[in-house]
Amino acid sequence: MTVPKFTALKGTGQKISMVTAYDYPFARLVDEAGVEGVLVGDSMSMVVQGHENTLPVTLDEMIYHAEMVGRAVNHALVVVDMPFPSYHLGKFKAIENAGRILKETRCQAVKLEGGVEQAETIAALVSAGIPVMAHCGLRPQNVHQLGGYRVQRDEQALMSDACAAAEAGAFAMVLECIPRGIAAKITGMLSIPTIGIGAGADCDGQVLVLHDILGMASDYAPRFVKAYANLNKTVVDAVRGFRDEVRGGDFPAAEHTFE
Ligand code: KIV
């Protein structure tokens, strides 16, 4: 999948699926499953590193993981989140940091959170040949300013952000946690695909965090999440089975043993 082919999926009737991945084995599996996009999300900060929000993950850590994902994926488009504050320190710093992502991983695009106030940065990245996926609506990197993870309902602000990011040259846009009606309007207004998470069924595609899809999340799951498996249980059952067989002397058996 290339960036132009991804954008061209808009209006074809084919909905776009995208999931996160943070390491080689899972990236290989999600690519095999046939999704159009793989996102090395800064959700890694919470999902993999165990932090309480997405702020702690660093650019070096994102690159370290994106390189593994980039090597595993042969079909899907791989997009890497620019972590906070790797694109907030001016256009040149943003190009330098996004450039590192493209040079040091095999990934094809970056994603950053923001609309109106990031339009200049998006335009600068695009003019440097770096494809940008925008992220509007709820922006988890602004959690302290927002006072929590809440549905974003200011229609005028959301429309302005979406227009600004698209006009700046974004090739696609994540819409997070906004009412379905507003997401539908934005989707109808833009010529680039919208990828929703908690934004209803009218977006051009959907993205979810892999660990949520697999039922590997911790106790809290937001309303927009759907688990398609219960790997928490599968993993605990498997490791318990191993522990019990070791304790009972049943593992290793003859077939696991060299004579
Ligand atoms: O970091 C992430 O996983 C994301 C998705 C939730 C869209 O930005």
Count of DSSP strands:
8
Distance between the termini: 50 Å
Mean pLDDT: 97
Would you identify the CATH H-level superfamily of the largest domain? Phosphoenolpyruvate-binding domains
State the secondary-structure class. alpha/beta
Number of DSSP helical runs: 11
Helix content: 40-55%
Largest sheet, spatial ordering of strands: 1-2-3-4-5-6-7-8
As a percent range, the share of strand residues is 5-15%
Measured on Cα atoms, how large is the radius of gyration?
20 Å
How would a textbook summarize the main sheet? 8 strands, parallel, barrel
Tally of distinct domains: 2
CATH fold node name of the largest domain: TIM Barrel
Q: What is the global morphology?
A: globular
The CATH architecture category of the largest domain equals Alpha-Beta Barrel
H-E string: HEHEHHEHEHEHHEHEEHH
Give the low-pLDDT segments: none
Bound molecules: 3-methyl-2-oxobutanoic acid
CATH class of the largest domain: Alpha Beta
Description:
This protein is an alpha/beta fold and 259 residues long. It has 2 domains: 3-228, Alpha-Beta Barrel (TIM Barrel); 230-258, no CATH class. It contains 11 helices and 8 strands. It has helices spanning 3-8, 24-33, 44-47, 59-72, 91-104, 119-127, 143-146, 155-167, 180-189, 210-213, 231-248; strands at residues 16-20, 37-40, 77-81, 109-113, 132-137, 172-176, 194-197, 205-208. Strands 1-2-3-4-5-6-7-8 form an 8-stranded parallel beta barrel, surrounded by 6 helices. Helix 2 (24-33) packs across helix 4 (59-72) and helix 5 crosses helix 6. The chain is globular, with a radius of gyration of 20 Å. The protein binds 3-methyl-2-oxobutanoic acid.
